[in-house]
Specification:
Length: about 130
């Protein structure tokens, strides 16, 4: 993980995640979230949460980010930083860890309140494409 860590511009990811969070549409929870990810070709993708009057239909920030990933050419997520309104690292919800697993796999790095961790640590014994 040390090598992979050195190649990530965490400062840029953090800044991009905060910018995304500032665009969140979260009038119901008042809990804006932003996320940014580094793609294996060097692109940065991002997303914010977008809520709905039909509460259950709301989209997490990570949903927007994986849509941005697909829309801008696909690829693999190498590192991800999700933030709350204070810019503090926010742990992706269970569903969104599954999204990160799908597009980043076990090696993808995640910034957490306890430091950088791999997705294999954040979603142990994950269900994935290899199960199908
Ligand atoms: N939220 C995210 O965008 N990502 C997460 O990983 C956790 C939760 C959003 C969903 C909802 O709009 C708000 O945070 C409060 O749950």
């Amino acid at each position: 993980m040390t090598n992979a860590l050195a190649q990530v511009d965490w400062e840029l990811l953090h800044r991009t995640a905060i910018e995304a969070m500032e665009r969140a549409y979260a009038p119901y929870s008042n809990f804006p979230v932003g996320v940014a990810g580094l793609v294996d070709d060097g692109r940065i993708v991002s997303g914010c949460n977008v809520e709905n009057a039909s509460y259950g239909v709301g989209l997490c920030a990570e949903c927007g980010m994986v849509s941005d990933l697909a829309r801008t050419g696909g690829g693999r997520l190498m590192a991800v930083w999700c933030v709350d309104r204070s810019g503090e690292a926010l742990m992706p919800c269970g569903r969104c860890r599954q999204l990160l697993w799908e597009h980043g796999g076990p090696e993808c790095l995640l910034q957490t309140p306890l430091g950088v961790r791999s997705m294999s640590e954040m979603l142990p014994q994950a269900f994935g494409a290899h199960n199908l």
